[in-house]
């Protein structure tokens, strides 16, 4: 029998066929929606957006004709995916669509200049007037996406389950806020047919800035910007810890007793009822009479004059004052002494210092009220420090003789340099610059300070220091280091750039020689005080008597002019602290140099004709 729609069996099967058809259509629509292209949102610029949208539509059509509906699996955490170019009968075109941010509002035209976007629609016909309901725009990695782009995709493309899956593109590192803004503007102004990629435009338009050079400053230091210049303010010096205070107490007690005995002095300490000055004056007056009777005070026939230097440099450099340098150098001789207005440079509650009994190097660090560090090296014997460390005098005398009678550098000088490097590292952690560190010392301490300055370029003042066995071009004549020497002091003339001790010392060479000073030389005192020393040096090598006369006169002049109390007098400095300030003979003018910085000192000495080239 011929089947007919009127047949009872066919009547019963008809609802079933309709149901299956509806299920198939629904399934197809669902699969089409699941495998559809995610919509990419981009805001075009306000100027000429209509023309740009038209061009974008044409480009999108050409690209979609070569594409397919097959898409790889997209991971939920991936923000962007790529698709391979594969042939397909389905054609998708990118058309401009106007979208407003207001909820439940239809769009009107594709030429809107406010929030028009470019959307990929899975259809063969453009639709520029279709309403967009509740559009939610997500700004991710510099571009705006629709909520549909965040939905996970099917594992395989429809109708091609055997094709390999193309891996998703790597996630780009999030850009800065400025890069995001630039990316939005760039995507809006230049819509392209390819899936939006912001990596290239961002690198071309907003290049990443290279990290600037880092300056070593302490994290706790405050940086103040003034007129485009960053000035680092170091931390104020921390006080000594209670344990360090207790450890320093014996030295302070001993120093107080020595002040009562007129061995040491301080500006605010007890005044001694004892006065050794008259005895000192009588002894040296007798000594000078002996020199006169031996004919040592006569002007020599040949008296070389070292070349004077005219200082033309700046006088505005910020350094510690002459008084601060001298008091720090003198404090190295005073057991328990503290220089004037300076404070200890502390690390973990303890003053940074170093002592090596075997080599003779000993030093302490101080901080000025202006936030500058002074490393003060100890001179021979250590002064009253002999009361608690007498053995160091042996190694210090050996270091003196090594420099004078050989052309080598003592280990004490190397230790001094190592200590400076340690101080520099600790100071940097507290916000100090290298320019804030200075060196000083008297006698052997000044020797060590000049060596450290020569090796590092630091500024400072060395008092009564001889010449070095190491030389550099120019001998630091234009450096920030200065030697203060007293006319007649034997230690000052143990060099080849000052005439006076030849032939005991090597040949004199103006401004140099084999044992020159490092840094310019500032002479203080009476120039005629050097005459007896020159005449006595001429007797060296003439016989036993001549050698003895020379050695005695060398020692007598050393005691008259070498000690720090004599420099304090000639420089106009009030000793704070001072050691045996009554010992010596102050001959010559007392200059008012106490409050001068290093540049000011060089200028004043130059004007007085007492600045000598090293």
From TrEMBL:
Residues 119-132 have a biased composition (Polar residues). Residues 49-69, 106-118, 173-199, 217-233 have a biased composition (Low complexity). Residues 70-81 have a biased composition (Basic residues). Residues 43-200, 217-238 are annotated as: Disordered. This is Uncharacterized protein.
């Amino acid at each position: 029998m011929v089947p007919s729609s009127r047949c009872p069996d066919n009547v019963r099967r008809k609802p079933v066929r309709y149901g299956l058809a509806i299920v198939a259509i629904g399934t197809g629509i669902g699969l089409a929606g699941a495998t559809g292209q995610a919509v990419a949102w981009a805001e075009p610029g306000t100027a000429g957006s209509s023309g740009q949208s038209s061009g974008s539509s044409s480009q999108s059509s050409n690209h979609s004709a070569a594409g397919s509906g097959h898409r790889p699996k997209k991971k939920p955490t991936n923000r962007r995916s790529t698709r391979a170019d594969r042939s397909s009968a389905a054609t998708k075109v990118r058309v401009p669509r106007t979208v407003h941010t207001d909820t439940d509002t239809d769009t009107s035209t594709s030429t809107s200049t406010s929030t028009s976007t470019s959307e990929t629609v899975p259809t063969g016909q453009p639709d520029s007037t279709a309403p967009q309901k509740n559009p939610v725009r997500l700004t991710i990695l510099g571009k705006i996406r629709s909520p549909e782009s965040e939905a996970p995709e099917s594992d395989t493309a429809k109708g091609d389950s055997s094709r390999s899956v193309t891996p998703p593109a790597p996630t780009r590192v999030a850009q800065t806020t400025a890069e995001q803004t630039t990316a939005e503007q760039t995507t809006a102004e230049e819509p392209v047919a390819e899936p939006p990629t912001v990596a290239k435009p961002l690198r071309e338009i907003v290049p990443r800035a290279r990290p600037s050079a880092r300056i070593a400053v302490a994290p706790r230091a405050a940086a103040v910007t003034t007129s485009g210049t960053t000035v680092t303010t170091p931390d104020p010096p921390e006080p000594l810890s209670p344990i360090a205070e207790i450890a320093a107490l014996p030295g302070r007690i001993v120093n107080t007793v020595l002040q009562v005995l007129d061995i040491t002095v301080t500006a605010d300490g007890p005044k001694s009822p004892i006065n050794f000055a008259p005895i000192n004056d009588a002894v040296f007056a007798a000594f000078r009479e002996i020199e006169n009777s031996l004919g040592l005070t006569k002007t020599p026939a040949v008296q070389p004059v070292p070349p004077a230097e005219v200082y033309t440099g700046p006088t505005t450099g910020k350094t510690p004052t002459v008084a601060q340098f001298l008091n720090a150098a003198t404090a190295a001789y005073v057991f328990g002494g503290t220089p004037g207005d300076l404070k200890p440079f502390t690390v973990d509650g303890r003053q940074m210092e170093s002592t090596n009994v075997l080599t003779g190097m000993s030093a302490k660090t101080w901080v000025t009220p202006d936030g500058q560090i002074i490393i003060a090296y100890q001179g021979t014997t250590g002064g009253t420090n002999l009361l608690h460390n007498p053995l160091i005098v042996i190694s210090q005398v050996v270091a003196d003789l090594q420099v004078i009678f050989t052309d080598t550098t003592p280990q004490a000088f190397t230790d001094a340099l190592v200590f400076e490097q340690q101080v520099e590292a600790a100071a940097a952690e507290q916000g100090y610059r290298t320019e804030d560190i200075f060196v000083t010392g008297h006698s052997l301490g000044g020797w060590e300070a000049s060596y450290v300055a020569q090796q590092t370029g630091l500024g400072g003042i060395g008092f009564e220091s001889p010449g070095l066995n190491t030389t550099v071009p120019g001998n630091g004549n234009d450096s920030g280091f200065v030697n203060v020497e007293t006319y007649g002091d034997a230690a000052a003339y143990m060099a080849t750039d000052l005439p006076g001790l030849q032939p005991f010392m090597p040949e004199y060479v103006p401004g140099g020689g084999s044992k020159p000073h490092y840094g310019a030389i500032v002479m203080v005192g009476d120039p005629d005080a050097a005459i007896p020393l020159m005449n006595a040096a001429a007797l060296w090598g003439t016989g036993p008597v001549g050698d003895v006369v020379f050695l005695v006169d060398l020692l007598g002049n050393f005691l008259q002019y070498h000690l720090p109390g004599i420099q304090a007098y000639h420089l106009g400095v009030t000793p704070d602290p001072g050691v045996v300030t009554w010992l010596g003979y102050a001959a010559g003018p007392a200059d008012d140099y106490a409050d001068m910085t290093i540049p000011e000192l060089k200028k004043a000495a130059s004007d007085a004709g007492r600045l000598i080239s090293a």
